[in-house]
Amino acid sequence: MADADPGIFAGLAAVPEVAVADQAALDRLLASATKPFVVRGLVSDWPLVEAGRRSAADARAYLVEHARDVPFTVSVGTAESGGRLFYDDAMQMNFRMARAKLADIFAQIAREDGAADARPIYLASVDVHQFFDGLHAANHVDLGARQPIASIWIGTRTRIAAHNDLPRNLACVAVGRRRFTLFPRDQFRNLYLGPIDHTPAGRAVSMVDLHHPDHARHPRFREALEHAQVADLNAGDAIFIPSMWWHHVEGLAAFNVLVNYWWKDTPRWMGNPQDALNHALLAIRDLPEDEKRHWRDMFDHYIFGDGTAVTAHIPEGARSVLDPLTPESAGRLRAYLLRALSQ
Hints:
Layout (H helix, E strand, L loop, with lengths): L5 H5 L2 E2 L8 H10 L4 E3 L7 H8 L1 H11 L5 E5 L7 E2 L10 E5 L1 H11 L8 E7 H4 L3 H4 L10 E7 L2 E6 L4 E8 L1 E7 L37 H7 L1 E6 L3 E4 L4 E6 L4 E8 L9 H11 L5 H16 L2 H5 L15 H16 L1
Parallel strand pairs: 1-11, 4-8
Antiparallel strand pairs: 2-12, 3-5, 3-6, 6-7, 7-14, 8-13, 9-12, 9-14, 10-11, 10-13
Helix pairs in contact: 3-4, 4-5
């Protein structure tokens, strides 16, 4: 992997570190946190962490022992990519997707370990419960009443461009080392985002190469760096990333494993805001300017404004989806949208 400009990371603020005495303390932190924080050693007692401290081979053997006998999806990049799983010059993906048993994927990682032409090999967002037996029971964070999605990320030296996710995220380094470079939500204009429908992994990513930023091409990125925070995590450490914060993630060791937990504080039946943005691109963005201004006013009125002013003139019990949504009214609205989109 090509070395990053050390000045880029040396000049960034560090993600604040906090101490957590027990599960109750972690629960309180997660309930109130609006900014990132690091907890050193949060999962240092995991058997997976202990296996990785012995060797990468021991960590791989531990994972294979718990893996189900099913194909895993893996991304395989090119040796010249420097570990960056991204677009090529033609804006196509610079990696290919394959499916294989976990033991076979790990055997290929072992064969390429240390080779000058080693390729980045990456298993992204693998559902822990679906693909492993007993792994979660022996290696997990108690998140109380939350019902998170538990995912595991496994790979060699890789670089994943800055992106964001809707859920809150607690990411735990189990094997190897990871570097997280974080940007607040409002820095999206300064990150020079790529397409939202043609992406490496489902979310729009920054087009800036964080290791070698081209400030002539991306001048506003200097402003993003003024607000950035960085954290280098070892095995056993964890980082909390608030919803919609941008994060660039690097695997710094020859073999890296991360387990993360995603959860939302909103009801499961609520829609995804990204779907609303995509629909607005389809239905509003290319309207004449005067009509776009009208729809901006309509969104301000119905979505971002004072809800009581919107419905005060409608009798109670007759406001339908203009009242606070329930699972039932959300279901009716979703069915209405599906019918409209299918026409």
